[in-house]
Specification:
Blueprint lengths: L3 E2 L5 E2 L14 H15 L5 H7 L7 H6 L7 H10 L4 H15 L3 H17 L4 H11 L3 H7 L9 H7 L6 H13 L3 E4 L4 E4 L8 H25 L16 H23 L26
Antiparallel strand pairs: 1-2, 3-4
Helix pairs in contact: 4-5, 5-6, 6-11, 7-10, 7-11, 9-10
Length: about 300
């Protein structure tokens, strides 16, 4: 980008080419880095000047945005994008990451996030990040990871697809295997000629994680409901209890569930052979509201 006439009457310094807007999922981080880049190009560049670029009269416009005390408006997005010379695709992506941040429902976030992934894919930005999203968002990914390491796995994705309940396509199973390998969650062991699990944590940006985990949780809870009709009582165990507790009691329940969860994971780690894959859901949520203090 070259120099551009500023909305504040001066000239906006040329942007440093050390980052792309397509590498951002959080527009607030992008704005912070954008300001730093402009400041680096011109030491006299100020927060007030940045605010004027966005059509704001508030000198602490950027500070309010970064602290999440203010959301950027659509008009400010357009003015700021044009002021720094964003191309049409870049401006469209800017608008999308803003809409993602401001979305009120998971459905809205998911829709904008898919648009973000599409735009990022078109400019070849971080394919690994897309695989990370798919690992959390696609409910069957952890199931594939368990089944692929069975001793009797014939190295055929269709074999896995047929055993997953509800059944998925062989192409989805194959893609899942590719993603798991890309994330280094499985690897091919030449000595044993079989896939083995790699004990590794998938580190995913919080913006990705919030969308993917919500999608995953909704799906596995729905599968739990469907299991009532899908399996005989002897093949499943679904139970729940409604209790009244104090705020302190709630914290203790959370701690007990956390300890139990760790016990389950430790027990699962001792299993040498996998015959079947199970989903375990622990749920703790309020079914009443606290009494309002507004009298």
């Amino acid at each position: 980008m070259g120099a551009h006439s500023g909305l504040f009457g001066g000239t906006i310094p040329a942007m440093a080419h050390n980052f792309s807007i397509f590498s951002y999922l959080d527009y607030r981080h992008y704005l912070a880095d954008l300001f730093s880049s402009l400041k680096e190009a011109d030491a006299k560049f100020s927060y007030r000047a940045f605010a004027r670029m966005a059509g704001s009269s508030s000198p602490n416009f950027l500070q309010l945005i970064r602290s999440r005390k203010l959301n950027i408006s659509s008009s400010a997005v357009t003015k700021l994008g044009k002021a720094v010379g964003l191309t049409a695709p870049e401006l469209a992506y800017f608008e999308t990451i803003v809409a993602f941040d401001h979305a009120k429902t998971h459905e809205e976030k998911e829709r904008h996030f898919q648009r973000m992934l599409t735009a990022r894919h078109q400019v070849s930005v971080k394919e690994l990040e897309k695989a990370q999203y798919e690992y959390y968002a696609d409910w069957y990914m952890p199931v594939v990871r368990e089944l692929i390491t069975r001793n009797d796995y014939p190295n055929d994705p269709a074999w896995i697809a047929e055993r997953i309940v509800p059944q998925i396509s062989a192409s989805k199973a194959r893609k899942a295997i590719e993603s798991l390998e890309a994330l280094s969650l499985i690897r091919w062991d030449e000595a044993s000629s079989r896939w083995v699990q790699v004990d590794r944590v998938v580190r995913t940006p919080s913006e990705v994680l919030s969308v993917a985990v919500t999608k995953h949780t909704k799906k596995v809870f729905a599968l739990g409901e469907e299991s009532i009709e899908r399996f005989a009582p002897s093949e499943r165990d679904l139970r729940g209890v409604t209790v009244g507790v104090s705020r302190e009691g709630y914290q203790e329940l959370k701690e007990r569930m956390e300890r139990y969860w760790k016990e389950i994971l430790a027990f699962a780690a001792t299993q040498k052979e996998v015959d079947q894959v199970y989903q375990i859901n622990l749920q703790l949520f309020p079914m009443s509201r606290e009494e309002s203090n507004d009298k």
